[in-house]
Amino acid sequence: MFFIGIFGIEDKERPIKEFTNVVCPSCGRLTSAAFFEHYTYLHLFFIPTFRWNKHYYVKLRCCGALYEADAAYAEQLKTASPIDFSRLKKISSGFGGFDDMFARCANCGETFDASFAYCPHCGAKK
After folding, report:
1. Of 20, 42, 43, the residue nearest 32 (C-alpha)
2. Phi then psi for 125, rounded to 5 degrees?
3. Distance between alpha carbon 104 and the CA centroid of its chain, in Å?
4. Closest by alpha carbon to 9, among 47, 40, 33, 45?
5. At a CB cut-off of 8 Å and minimum separation 6, what does 83 contact?
6. What's the DSSP call for residue 125?
7. How many other β-carbons are positioned within 10 Å of the β-carbon of residue 111?
8. Helix/strand/coil (H/E/C) assignment for every residue in 13-36
């Protein structure tokens, strides 16, 4: 945030829509996804007056994977119900961006620490 006297510049995220019953392409779980807009704005006396640098994102609730949508597809997502992940650009894989720290069990499909030799959920060997 940048503020001088009567005006300032600040970044903001605005939620647009919540999608339910989405299968996460990163971890494979059934989850929900938040569709939001991130932008920078100028405010005068704390009243927003001008916005620029708009970006649209879809964040999955299960693992935190983050996808960016272009402006044309973002307009479609505002009214459409299913998300087409092939039209989104993957920004983060989820799990805080540390996919190499996690492994997926071939038996039960759960994720766990990659340093474990056995799955803590079902006991199958890694």
Report:
1. 20
2. -70, 140
3. 20
4. 40
5. 19, 22, 33, 58, 77
6. B
7. 21
8. EEEEEEEEEEECCCCCCEEEEEEE
- Where b means 16+ CB within 10 Å and e means fewer, 29-44 reads eebebebebebebebe
Q: What is the pLDDT along the chain (126 residues), one digit of tens a residue?
A: 555 667 888 888 999 999 999 998 988 889 999 999 999 998 888 788 889 999 999 999 888 888 999 999 999 999 887 899 999 999 877 655 444 456 777 787 777 777 788 888 788 887
Cβ burial, residue 10 (10 Å; 0-12/13-18/19+)? middle
Distance CA 122, CA 103 (A): 14
> Scanning the structure block, which residue is given the tokens 């650009």?
89
Q: Residue 116 is encoded by which pair of tokens?
A: 């474990």
Give the length of the chain: 126
Q: What's 91's DSSP letter? A: E
Task: Give residue 10's identity as a one-letter amino acid code.
Answer: E
- Torsions phi, psi for 21 (to 5 deg): 55, 55
